[in-house]
Amino acid sequence: MPTAWLISIGTELTLGQTVDTNSAWIAEQLAAHGVRCAAHMTVPDEIEYVAAAIRRAAEASDLVVISGGLGPTEDDLTRAALARATDDSLTIDTSSLEHIRAFFEKRGRVMPEANRTQALVPSRARAIANPCGTAPGITLHLGQTPCYALPGVPFEMKAMFTDAVLPALRAASGGRVVRTRLVHCCGIGEAELGERIHDLMQRGGSPEVGTTAALGIISVRINATTASVDKADRMLDKTEALVRERLGVAVFGRDRDSLASVVGEQLRARDATLSTAESCTGGLIGAQLTDVPGSSDYFLGGVISYANEVKRDLLDVDESILLEHGAVCDGVAHAMARGVRRKFGSTYALSVTGIAGPGGGSDAKPVGLVYIGLASPQRIHVIERRFGSAAPRSVIRTGAAIAALNLLRLELVK
User: Fold this and answer.
1) What pLDDT digit, counting tens, does each position of 59-87 carry?
2) Which residues make Cβ contacts (< 8 Å) with residue 259, sequence separation at least 6?
3) CATH of the domain at 243
4) What is the maximum span of the chain, computed from C-alpha positions, in angstroms?
5) Mind listing the pLDDT tens digit for each residue in 27-37?
6) Looking at residue 39, what is its pLDDT?
7) Whole-angstrom Cα distance, residue 20 to residue 12?
8) What proportions of the chain, in percent to the nearest 5, are helix, strand and coil?
9) How do beta strands 299-304 and 274-278 pair?
10) How far apart are the C-alpha atoms of 33 and 255, rounded to whole Å?
């Protein structure tokens, strides 16, 4: 399988001032066309670093894709670095210069002289037309390795990659395709999941199987590389079936499914409704539910009961429980779920109360302690979760919201 190295250029990237989203998108596109991304490199706006990165990438891979450094300012050095890496000189590409002038003329402006720089390309290279902006791309070979340099502006880069790079990849692939499927899981630890499917994850297997974990959701990634889409899909179907068999109820969906969208479909299928009472999560459960189009079919609304007075006055939480045990206990979660279900007349209700930190914890009730309640027509059930006192506030809150939705999901699949 051919390999690619991706180079992202910009001091703002190396300093962490801007997040590089281009490389992730490019890598995904390459994988879909049978090219494995072997490395991501991020280098500052310094010509020595950029030229060295280009030479190293060309020696180590079958394809190099660069993003960034093609603007009109002094710190846009990709053109010069390509020339240095190939022992070439820069020359004006007249068609690019005409395109840049026309870009400004269409907007009733005169092209600044600085933009003339953007029409420079190494003499043995070819310019790539930019349909969205002023910065043309550049394509050339470093030895036998094709190299594409594209602008760092994401929408410009994506358009040019689609127009110029993908056709070349398709022609070089000989019809080989890579198809990917994600199987999403919740309520199982990464180590346990890995043990259950360890034989499917052996290096060199076909299809390739790996895992990605993020805030309570573990995704099993299946990559099939074959000569046709139909054959790849058959391989994915067979492996997905094995994964589902091994992991059982921990699997909640695949590909673009989210926990909230799956819970929503389960509620819709039962003609059931949901309400929420949130304290430490501050509305995150409701936000995840309403991120799904059509969620008004089943989500009635919620109460953000942050203060004890709101828990007492709106959700009918007995003040004696609050005084004796505090707001973070199973009794309060129980009462919140019961109270919000009554308030909204919903089929189901979720409640969350906990300590998100960084302060407010104690030995008895540390930061990260959360109680989640679920009220159904049959019962009210409360679970305790501990996300760890060192976990950031955002992790605790998001983890609690995910755990609450998963509790409801498991109730609905019984």
Assistant:
1) 999 999 999 999 999 999 999 999 999 99
2) 184, 186, 217, 252, 253, 288, 402, 405, 406, 409
3) 3.30.70.2860
4) 82
5) 989 987 878 89
6) 97
7) 10
8) 45, 25, 30
9) parallel
10) 18
Element (H, E) at 369: strand 369-375
Give the separation between CA 414 and CA 411, rounded to whole angstroms: 6
403 and 269 in a common domain? yes
For the chain, how many helices (H) and strands (E)?
15, 17
How far apart CA 62 and CA 101 sit, in angstroms, is: 35
Residues 133 and 202 in one domain: no
User: For residue range 336-347, what is the model confidence (pLDDT) as tens digits?
Assistant: 999 999 999 999
pLDDT (tens digit per residue) in 364-390 = 999 999 999 999 999 999 999 999 999
Token representation of residue 26:
């490019």
And the tokens for 141?
């070979």
Query: Which string of b and e fits 253-285 if b means at least 16 CB within 10 Å?
Result: bbeeebbbbbbbbbbeeeeebbbbbbbbbebbb
Task: Tell me the residue type at 73.
Answer: T
Cross-strand partners of 9: 43
pLDDT in tens, 204-249: 778 999 999 988 899 999 999 887 888 999 999 999 999 999 999 9
Q: 3-state class of 14 per DSSP?
A: helix
Nearest CA to 13 among 152, 155, 156? 152
The residues pairing with 128 across neighbouring beta strands, listed in sequence order, are 137
Instruction: Provide the whole-model pTM.
Output: 0.79
Contact status, residue 95 vs residue 35, Cβ threshold 8 Å: no
Q: Do residue 161 and residue 188 come from a single domain?
A: no
**pLDDT mean over 191-202:** 94
Tally of domains in the chain: 3
CA gap 342, 351 in Å, rounded:
13
> Which of 217, 235, 254 is the last residue before a domain boundary?
254
CB-CB contact of 374 with 385 (8 Å): no
